[in-house]
Amino acid sequence: MSNLDQRPAPTLCGAAHHTGPVRELQRGREVPLGESTLVRRLLPTLGRRMVGAWCFVDHYGPDDIADEPGMRVPPHPHIGLQTVSWLHAGEVLHRDSLGSLRTVRPRELGLMTAGRAIAHSEESPRPHRNAPILHGAQLWVALPDAHRQIAPAFEYHAELPRVTGGGGLSATVILGTLDGATSPGTTYTPLVGADLTLAAGTDARLPLEPDFEYAVLTISGESEVAGVRLTPGALLYLGEGRTGLPVRADHAAAVLLLGGLPFEEQLVMWWNFVGRTTEDIERAREDWMTGSRFGEVTGYDGARLAAPAMPPTPLKPRGRAR
């Protein structure tokens, strides 16, 4: 998925480094995406720019698209990151410049590694008779410097491991490892992403890695996580040093858990690029606009996305400390 903002501000990735557990509730903001999709942007925010290597989170829906275009994200470029497509309802058709063509459905993993350069598009298959509701999340993972120039790749995993911890809690492991279950998705830093399903009356505790920092966001319903009541539209940052996470729900709910070792490298995120220097970003933008390096996405019914103008001042890479 793309950042479609045509006047994107430089995003200084990283944030204040907490060395222990915290409970910081961050409200997202609504952002239009494409022709008819409105998303809640939960990462980055002014208060929190990264959680481990997770650097971007959009939550969208549930939207009734039976009589609407649905998701329509034209071909656009990426460098230096991985994109994670995650659905609770609906379907998304992925195309990329490697020639990949895949329909991603609920609780299936579509994982694209941009590496040195890739382009892709995403759209709701038409007609929408079999999937009239669109609901899900799009996430980005920053690649560490040692791997950010790797060859691009796309992975699709229909079957993912599940964790059943009792007390009404079950989890699908999207990326990384949770409670001994490991996703088949390729990762380049120690991290975890998991979809937590909370049955009505859930009262459970999920084991965590104390070296990781964590955050949770509500996909649907209401829940209580680490003693904080959560509804859709906010991200709860939990910090580090936790060995377990208490979760409760009076009614059925779904929560995304994101975590990882704190990302210590300095980087900057601008538009759909994650780089280390102004020159990285300028070169990527120029290559996209001149039609080199990123390849071509074929089959999308529409024009590709033009890159916005670069900001007037150099992009300054930052680390976690603000």
From TrEMBL:
Top-rank lineage group of the source organism: Bacteria
All copies of domain Pirin N-terminal, residue ranges: 42-141
Residues spanning the membrane: none
Domain Pirin C-terminal: start-end pairs: 194-293
Coiled-coil boundaries: none
PANTHER family xrefs: PIRIN, PIRIN-RELATED
Record family assignment: Belongs to the pirin family.
Protein name: Pirin family protein
Source organism: Streptomyces chisholmiae
Lineage: Bacteria, Bacillati, Actinomycetota, Actinomycetes, Kitasatosporales
